[in-house]
Amino acid sequence: MTTMTSSSLCPCCSGKVYHDCCQPWHSGQLAPTPEALMRSRYAAFVLRNPDYLLATWHPDTRPGELGLDSSPEWVSLQVLDASEQGARGRVHFRAVYRAGTGWGYLEEISDFVREGDRWLYVAGKTSEGALKPGRNDPCPCGSGRKYKACCLKG
């Protein structure tokens, strides 16, 4: 599992420091919304924390084990929509990852259920694709810089 300092920016791309964002959920506090849970699960993928992912997965759909050794290098997250109605929640997001020398994305509409005070991930409808950023497009890594001045250089 990758570790972070509490003053590092949170990998969920919220713009907050990890200590004030996903670290409380990773440390055992309950995420208050489906979006907070989804962001903390994305951060757990980045940090390679399968125990947290399994603990926040509904037992009816949770796999027996989860290996993250072949997981891609996740670089940015964009929440496209989030909703909550009673004990059900849904989050639509796009996560970008490095794929060798290129870029890919995973887009998912995730379903969540609240049992008691705890939100759990149930399942998601996913689609994947390749990203082909132009030189003057924003860099897929989420730096805010143009692609030509960021990851295209390196």
Which features characterize this protein?
single chain, 154 residues, alpha+beta, 4 strands
Which residues sit in consecutive blocks of at least 5 with pLDDT less than 50?
A: none
- Beta-strand proportion: 25-35%
Quote the average pLDDT. Answer: 91
Order of helices and strands: HHHEEEE
User: What is the overall shape?
Assistant: globular
Which structural class do you get from the secondary structure elements?
A: alpha+beta
Query: How many DSSP-defined strands?
Result: 4
The largest β sheet comes out as: 4 strands, antiparallel
If you compute it from the alpha carbons, what radius of gyration comes out, rounded to the nearest whole angstrom?
16 Å
Number of helices: 3
Please give the structural blueprint.
Blueprint: H1 23-26, H2 34-46, H3 50-55, E1 73-85, E2 88-99, E3 102-115, E4 118-131
Antiparallel strand pairs: 1-2, 2-3, 3-4
Tell me what the structure shows.
There is one protein chain. A four-stranded antiparallel β-sheet has the order 1-2-3-4, covered by helices on one side. The mean pLDDT is 91. The protein has 154 residues and is an alpha+beta fold. The chain is built from three helices and four strands. The two termini are 26 Å apart. β3 and β4 form a beta hairpin. The chain is globular and about 50 Å long.
